[in-house]
Task: structure prediction
Amino acid sequence: MRAKHEGVAAVSDHEVYSCPACSTPAALPGHCPECAKKRRYVKLVRHDSRLPVPMSMVRGADVPRLTVPGLPGIEDAMAGGFVPGTVTLLYGGPGIGKSRLALLLCDRVGRLTPRPPVYVTSEQMPGHIKLTAALVGVERSPMLVCYQTQVGAVGDVLSESEASFAVVDSVQGMTDKDAGIVPVVREIIRVARLLRVAVLCVSHATKDDDYSGPRTVEHDVDAMVEMTRHPDRADTLLWTVERKYRFGPIGRQAVIVQDGEGRLHDYRAQQ
Ligand SMILES: [Zn+2]
Result:
C-alpha cells in the first residue's frame, strides 16, 4: 500500500498524459483506456501542463461529465453531472441525510462508470454504512467501501481502485480538530486533479463561521452544495448549488422526497 502511495506522490502535479489517437486525457502513463476498449493499444504521450499550448488543444468542455442515472434533478442542478478531476463539497446540518444521499448518488453515478466508485468513510465503520445503505436500497451496490481517517491514504485507495467517482464522508473525520479541514480538502483536491476522479466531500455545517466550517474551503473546492430541509415539507430535502460552481450556474436546486421507509427519490424522476 505504502509503495503505491509513494508512486502517486512521485508523479508530478504538472505531468499529464493524453492519447495521440483520440486525445483522451490520463493522469498516469500507460496505454489509452478508451482505445483499449476497441482493442487498439495506443501508448499515452506525456505533456507538462506548465508549457503553453494553443487553447484549441486544451481539453475542456469535450471531457464527458459523470451523469447521475435516476437522479435527473441532481444531474440538472450540476449542469449535466460531475466533472472529472473536481471536488464538490456537500454540507448540511446533523442528521439531515447527507450520508444517505451520498450513498445513493455514489451507487447511481457508478452505474455508468467503467470501475466501481469508492465510498471512503472516516466516521462510521463499513458495517454501519451498510445499514445506512440498506435504508436507501443500495446495500447490494458494486461500490467499494473503506474506512480511512488518514487523508494521505486516500490517494492510494483512489489510484488502486482506478475509480472515476468517490465520496469522502466526512472531511471533518479525516483530521484532528487543530488542523481544520483546509489541509484535508486541499490534499483531496490534489489527488482528484492528478487521478481525474470526481470527489464528493461530505462536511458538517456549523452555525458559526468557525475554522471547521465548510466556508473555510469555499475558495479551494470547485462546487459548494448545501443540503437543507424544504421550508414547508418535513419529508423533502433540497440539494442547492450554493454560492459557488465553477462549471455551471449557481442557485439551481434538486428536490429529494423521502418516502415512509426512509428511501430517497428525485422529485423530477417521479414526474
Ligand atoms: Zn485513445
